[in-house]
Structure formats: structure tokens, C-alpha cells
Specification:
alpha/beta; seven-stranded mixed sheet; 40% helix; 17% strand; globular
Amino acid sequence: MKVLLINGSPNKNGCTNQALNIIADELKIQGVDSETVWIGNGPVRGCIGCGGCKSGKGCVFNDDVLNVLGAKVKQADGYIFGAPVHYASPNGATVAVLDRLFYAYGKFMQFKPAASIVSARRAGTTASYDVLNKYIGINNMLQVPSTYWNMVHGNTPEQVLSDEEGVTVMRAVASNTAWLLKLLANAKGTEFEKPVIIPKVKTNFIR
């Protein structure tokens, strides 16, 4: 069992990474492997709605982290999406990456556990958390619960560790992720492995 942790912060070793480290440590304690992937701080393309990813070959753009990340998505059993708060929203690079990741590789993430986590100095966390959760909710994924909304506060990684409630929330995210992964592992090969699939029907409001 392996969980892919995505660090969407432009700061590789900042507060978001600290939160993900807490999760990774708890996963290890509970016997679950993890890998943290940083999306980097270079240019990241936004989705242009070309539909090229429908070919099954990933995103048509190969000049950023997206398809490398997609290859790791295929191999993972669970996911944690982490982002800092910029203007009461997840930073733009994280949103750009997740838009394309879910279009091109969403089918590989279905029916797997996932959680989003956010970090901020002070405010904007709940709005940002809501944005990230939309990706999980639209993709038949199992949203991992915790003891509070998945956020940490602090202006430095050291301050994040001083947010005692935030630390326990991150540990609970990890613990519940490990629990769900073990339940799913036990369900493999049985009728409980996946739900009954309801085909999606799209309805446009204007015809």
C-alpha cells in the first residue's frame, strides 16, 4: 500500500511540506508507505480544454510536472493533495495541476481514498479546503475524514509544529487513510471491492 502526497506549494520545504511530513510519519507508523512529490516552482500550464487527454496518453503538454505526476498516480493506492493559501484560495499552480491531473488521470484515482490539506498563516483555509475537496467529490473517491477540517496554521514550518490541533488533525488524516486502505485491501476479490457503478448522464441547462 502506498499513498502519494502532492506538495503544491512553491516553497518545497515550507508549511505545506511540514504538514505532509506529519502525515507521512504517521502513515509509516501504521505500516503504509508514502511518497511526496513537489510540483515545483517553475511555470505550470493551465488546462486549455483541448480534449487531447481523452486519447489515454496523458496531457498533451509535456513541458511541466503533470505527466510525471500522472505516472505516479497510476501506481498509488491513496492520495493527499496539499496546498498553501493564496488570497483565500489554493495557490494557482496547484489548481492548474489538479485540473489537468483529474482530466487526464482521474480514472486511475477512482474508488481510492483521498484527502486535501491546506496551510495558511491565518485565514482563507476553509475556502481553500472546499476548492480542493471538489476534485475528490466529483471523481468517485473516498474522502478521508478527520477530527477537524484539514488545515494547519503558521508562517514557518516550525510554527506549524506549534499548532498542536493542526498536528493532531494531520495525524488523524493519516490514520484514517491507513484504515481505509486496509479495509479496501481486505475487500479485494470480493463483491465489496467496488460499488455498483451508476453510469454518468450529462444534462446541459441550455439546449
